[in-house]
Design a protein that fits this description.
It comes from Caballeronia sordidicola (Burkholderia sordidicola). The chain has about 775 residues and is of the alpha+beta class. The chain has three domains: about 290 residues, Beta-galactosidase, Chain A, domain 5 (Distorted Sandwich); about 375 residues, Glycosyltransferase (Alpha/alpha barrel), CATH 1.50.10.10; about 80 residues, Sandwich (Maltose phosphorylase, domain 3), CATH 2.60.420.10. Strands 1, 8, 9, 10, 11, 13, 14, 15, 16 and 19 form a ten-stranded antiparallel sheet that branches. The model has no long low-confidence stretch (mean pLDDT about 95). The structure holds 5-hydroxymethyl-3,4-dihydroxypiperidine (IFM).
Length: about 775
């Protein structure tokens, strides 16, 4: 891949529509969703994709910047922390004789917003004018550097096409969030403190303006504002380059001002073209490790690249104290809180394409263990119950009430009852370890997460006279049904959590006896307690009926009213809005994959044809009231050989953020659904399954896909996989690492660097 070195080169998008998301025109009603879709992010800095110019004399680039971990609590009475907006570092205003330049009335089409997925940046291209006296073509570039995460870059090029006039360009850095209180403001540097969370944020910035190749000093400036004035003429080219360095930390522990100035210095020495070059090189590396190529279906290819773009931009392998929020750093929905979305929908992607990022995300859960211990203790249990919604400390941040669609106050019970989160985190810890062989992580951090979550479940599941342990009054993934008993997803995941913890006890005892000794002593883990864990795992109620082969989603689910959801096809609002929450509760209507999610995550729990039976039962009863749902169904449908149905789930998941038919995209992209897009391809169509000492593949790709290619990292190896329709073949090459075993459609093969694998396979779908 080539790297742009001239400004025109930098402003020119990749010439390949499969790497480009482009929209023209302006529609104020769609501006919110575009802000999310066109957001740029590097896992530390996220900037919403506002358009380059506003009519009516507002600022150019009135965008919103979010910084990972910059939480504050606005209101002490209902103290729910949320991410706050960092100062807007992109503000620019261009005026002729004091009147702003805007795009011409009716000329919306000349405005283009282009997300260059390959290069990881946002470009705009628009024509502005003022009373028809001055015409300008304005092109811009914004990036959040993937190579130097503290750095943001803005480039603006104006080519004057008509008119001689006095032009003023104002650039500034504007604080919009009242939570930020100034500590220090000096030329090109601001340091702020948050009102209540004890965070400090610094931004250092440098700007240059060049007219026809000559740098021009500002006509005036104050600490965070710069102004230039000049006379334009046709053919004149004016370039603004602004670099910002952002740092953030806990007051008293960091010197963000100093760090920001240091980071800015590095970027200044590089110059904007090398900042762009280093950023593009970092993106090239990410694409090398994570790209998925589909031949024969351009829409699917674009959807995948869009998903991979946002996934790669969401993580920061260098920060173990932040995780990825439900909307990543692309919007304010859920206030930047972290859910099970990260471990179940995102971790597989990171574990298999970017293990360092996966590790940092799991370390966030390690560092927030104390919050999880406190929550368990507060509710009367032992061990660690992770926050359903987590911010920076691990304390529960789920609101107790929200306003419902009918504007009435609705109680939110998820913070207390949606407890499967602890088992989900344990699942991700195990999966990461199994896929990477990172023993150091398991020994020093993962084991403690597994022990404390297993301890939670062993205190939470109570033995009852029927000989089973029961977990009463929970919410499963299907949030339409609250205060239910023995949710099969929760209980089977909990059992898996306990069993994997016991496996790790054996492993530690054998391999790291000293570390086991000190961990057991620190957590006061006795053999008697481990014995009790075993009993809980053996007796926990799962809801599985061997006679029917069905899991009952929770105790009493099968006695609820059975509703034919197809009667409500075409509805434009969620089913609980159509029926009302009370009636929905009385029905076998599932909000999102629940038993189906269990089938996707733990297929071995579904012997023989019970996977197909459960999918056949639950899929028609699912209302997909959450963006997380369709992808889980897609994974399972693809694995069951229902390839074209799986493709339909894939397309519907892709539409959530790419098409404006989903009500809630204004608040940020649905990063879990985007992770699900990758999972559908890798775990679904390619049929990948991870095992302790080998991988299995059972590929079946949709008829429209000529081929599918992707790469994987597994236990220090890098594998490339190609599935081709015309030859009905699977090709696997091992680029890096030791020989290994692959099982394809049940047959065992040896794979080494010298000996790639090429096998005929059967793609027949149902
Ligand atoms: O975690 C999800 C939950 O499963 C459904 N509601 C939205 C949350 C955040 O994405």
């Amino acid at each position: 891949m080539t790297v742009a070195t001239t400004l025109s080169g930098a402003l020119t998008p990749t010439d390949d529509c499969e790497w480009i998301i482009e929209e023209a025109g302006y529609d104020p009603l769609r501006e919110g969703s575009r802000g999310s879709r066109f957001a740029i992010s590097n896992g530390f800095l996220g900037v919403r994709g506002a358009r380059a110019i506003h009519r009516g004399g507002r600022w150019v680039g009135a965008s919103r910047t979010l910084v990972a971990g910059l939480f504050d609590t606005a209101d002490e009475e209902h103290a729910i922390p949320g991410l706050i907006a960092a100062p807007n570092w992109l503000q620019v205003r261009i005026l002729r004789d004091g009147v702003p330049l805007t795009h011409r009335e009716g000329d919306g089409k000349s405005q283009h917003r282009i997300l260059d997925l390959r290069r990881g940046l946002l470009l705009t291209d628009a024509r502005l004018s003022n009373a028809d006296v001055v015409w300008v073509r304005l092109r811009s570039l914004h990036l959040a550097s993937l190579s130097h995460r503290a750095i943001g870059l803005q480039l603006i090029q104006m080519e004057f096409e008509r008119g001689e006039a006095e032009i003023t360009l104002n650039a500034s850095l504007e604080v919009s969030d009242t939570s930020l209180l100034p500590e220090r403001v000096e030329q090109g540097l601001g340091v702020w403190n948050t009102t209540s969370s004890g965070k400090r944020l610094a931004m250092a910035t440098t700007l240059t303006l060049r007219i026809d190749g000559v740098d021009i000093d500002p006509t005036s400036s104050s600490p965070l504002q710069w102004s230039w004035r000049w006379t334009s003429h046709p053919g004149q080219v004016v370039c603004l380059a602004r670099t910002v360095a952002v740092t953030c930390g806990v007051a008293g522990e960091v010197h963000p001002g100093q760090d920001a100035v240091g980071a800015l210095d590095v970027a200044r020495k590089l110059g904007w073209s090398d900042v762009v070059a280093a950023h593009e090189t970092a993106w090239t590396k990410r694409w090398h490790c994570s790209d998925v190529e589909i031949e024969g279906d351009a829409a699917a290819q674009r959807a995948l690249r869009f998903a991979l773009y946002h996934l790669n931009g969401a993580a920061n392998p260098d920060d173990e104290h932040v995780s990825i929020a439900a909307r990543a750093l692309t919007g304010d929905d859920y206030r930047g809180h972290v859910f099970w979305d990260t471990e179940i929908y995102l971790l597989p992607f990171f574990t298999l394409t970017w293990p360092l990022a996966a590790r940092a995300l799991l370390m966030y859960r390690f560092h927030t263990l104390d919050g999880a211990r406190a929550k368990a203790a507060e509710l009367g249990w032992r061990g660690a119950l992770y926050a359903w919604e987590s911010a920076d400390t691990g304390a529960e941040t789920c609101p107790l009430h929200v306003i419902g669609p009918d504007r009435k106050l609705v109680e939110v019970k998820c913070g207390r009852q949606e407890q499967h989160i602890s088992a989900d985190i344990a699942y991700a810890v195990w999966q990461y370890w199994q896929a990477t062989g990172d023993d150091g992580f398991m020994r020093d951090a993962g084991a403690e997460i597994l022990m404390e979550t297993a301890r939670f479940w062993s205190s939470r599941a109570r033995p009852e006279p029927d000989g089973h342990c029961h977990v009463r009054s929970v919410i499963g993934p299907d949030e339409y049904h609250e205060s239910i008993d023995d949710n099969s997803f929760t209980n089977v995941m909990a059992r898996c959590n306990i069993r994997r913890a016991l496996d790790v006890v054996e492993w530690l005892r054998a391999r790291w006896p000293e570390q086991w000794g000190s961990l057991a002593a620190r957590l006061a883990l006795s053999d008697a307690e481990l014995g009790q864990w075993r009993t809980v795992a053996e007796t926990i109620m799962t809801g599985f009926d061997p006679k029917t082969g069905l899991f009952e989603q929770f105790a009493g689910f099968f006695s609820l009213d059975d509703v034919d959801l197809s009667r409500y096809a075409g509805r434009s609002v969620p089913i609980d809005v159509v029926l009302g929450p009370e009636q929905t509760r009385q029905c076998q209507i599932v909000k999102q994959a629940d038993v189906v999610a269990l089938l996707a995550l733990l297929p071995d729990e579904f012997p023989g044809d019970t996977g197909a039976k459960n999918f056949g039962y639950y899929a028609p009863r699912c209302a997909h009231g959450s963006s997380l749902s369709l992808a889980m169904h897609g994974v399972v449908a693809a694995r069951l050989g229902e390839t074209e149905a799986a493709l339909d789930y894939f397309r519907r998941t892709s539409a959530i953020d790419l098409e404006d038919n989903h009500a809630a995209i204004d608040g940020g992209v649905h990063i879990a659904a985007l992770g699900g897009i990758w999972s559908m391809v890798v775990f679904g169509f390619a049929g990948l399954a991870l095992h302790a000492d080998h991988l299995t593949l059972n590929p079946r790709i949709p008829a429209a896909w000529q081929s599918l290619r992707f790469g994987l990292q597994w236990r220090g190896r890098y594998l490339k996989i190609k599935i081709e329709h015309a030859t009905a073949s699977l090709e696997v090459t091992l680029d890096v690492g030791e020989p290994m075993t692959l099982v394809v459609n049940g047959k065992v093969f040896a794979l080494s660097r010298e000996q790639p694998l090429w096998v005929l396979t059967n793609f027949s779908s149902r």
